[in-house]
Amino acid sequence: MDPIYVTGHRNPDTDSIVAAMAYAALRNAVGDREYEAACLGHVSDETQIILDRFGFQPPQRITSMHTQIRDLDFDTPPVLSDAVTVGRAWKNLLELKNISAMPVANEDGTLFGMLSREDVASYNMAQISAGFLEPVPLFNLLSSLEGKILNAAGENTDTVTGEVSIALPQDRENLLFNSSNAIVLCGHQPEMIRRALEMNVNCLVLCQAELSEELRSMETSTCIISTPYDAYRAARLIFQSTPIGRICRTDNLVCFHLEDRVDEVREQVLKFRDPCYPILDENERVVGVLTRYHLLRPRRKRVVLVDHNEAAQSVPGLEEAEILEIIDHHRLADIQTANPIYVRNEPVGSTNTIIAGMFQDRGLMPSAGMAGMMAAAILSDTVMFKSPTCTTRDVRTAERMARIANVSLEDLGKDIFSASFESKSAEDLLNADYKEFHIAGHDLAVSQITCMDSPKMLERKDEFLALMKNLTAKKGYSMMILMLTDVLLEGTQIIYLGDDETICQAFNVSPRENTVFLPHVMSRKKQIIPMLSALWG
Known about the structure:
The structure is a single chain. By secondary structure, the protein is of the alpha/beta class. Helices cover 36% and strands 22% of the residues. The two termini are 46 Å apart.
């Protein structure tokens, strides 16, 4: 069963990471085993502190929800060695009704070539005209003929080659084999056998016949093989002992990899028009084959979104995925779905508050470790209950989770917000909790750093502004804001790029040199974005 990814937003904060882990744990605990927590970006130091404290590993990181080759129900025919006989490969092709070609691999599993029915047919028609067998391993010949070696010379033979002749009784000697470079097929024909052995032909194949002790003991370099088949069928089977590596197509092969996007592969398929394409894994080993049929109805990835419902904040390729659920506490934004889905959006300070309620709805208590992380996530997102987004329900839920985990909320808060930022680069700080928005024709980004010493952070203003100017120019933002939210001061120092008048009107302040302090402003979603939305209409 393909996984259902539970993921928060890009540049994930603690609430986003823990919400994904908690909801996946909830669904798996009640029997839905496909759910897997995932994250879209680097796990922050704050979040890592919480994960380490309660003994959890970060969720797997995913970078795309684009439909890939690995999401298709592609065919997985046998992958044959290039040393396999044509006859054995043909049996496989006959069994594979819906596949026109099968992959041929090297010993390490990497691609050697592609063998189609047309390749086998062309080879057989060519041999009818030529009648000459290029050198093949003796084992191949014995396998094709179901043969047995009858003499010592045969035991010392490794390869067989020559003109293939069926030695029927004839009066004129020159119409029979006249060279030692021959493979002679005959029945119970003692004189013909004797002549072949005297000429030291490369190989003598006895078809449904016995060999006398006198002939068996003759001094000769001829390899003698017996077969239960008649001469006509044996002659055809001899040519089917050729290794498929000689006849399969090895030039100008078009290959795809498991991680290739379906929309890009579709263009390639239309361009090259091959009936069948090999699929390779990350180690270049063959894992299957792709046809146009597989591209008609690709199986989309499945995802549950937590702590966001805005396309710009979600995983790239979301439009190609199947969104199953949204669990969030932000404004409703622009995500659209093809079918009705389950949405739970509540005006609380943390997504984990909602998920704790869902544990209660299912009659399930989170583990002590998970409860501790959920309590920490609520503290983080409500800035220790000082954010205007915080509700009485957030406080009560955090207290309950702390009791289950047997931890102190005060100690958790100190762990979360007392981390040192001095060793971090300005770029890492700016990107740690960074979100993009589109409001009434305005594209903007708002980054937030929650700390306990905003004046110290403000000393790095020039570093931040330089990075912000580059991002604004690169992405064409109307405005970019960095929030330095101070837990102790219960306010936010903002550094911004954009129109001064916009900041004046939106927050009723007088900014100076791209900075201004906003007392009692702690929330991006409830105090920054709504004010800009109201201003821009």
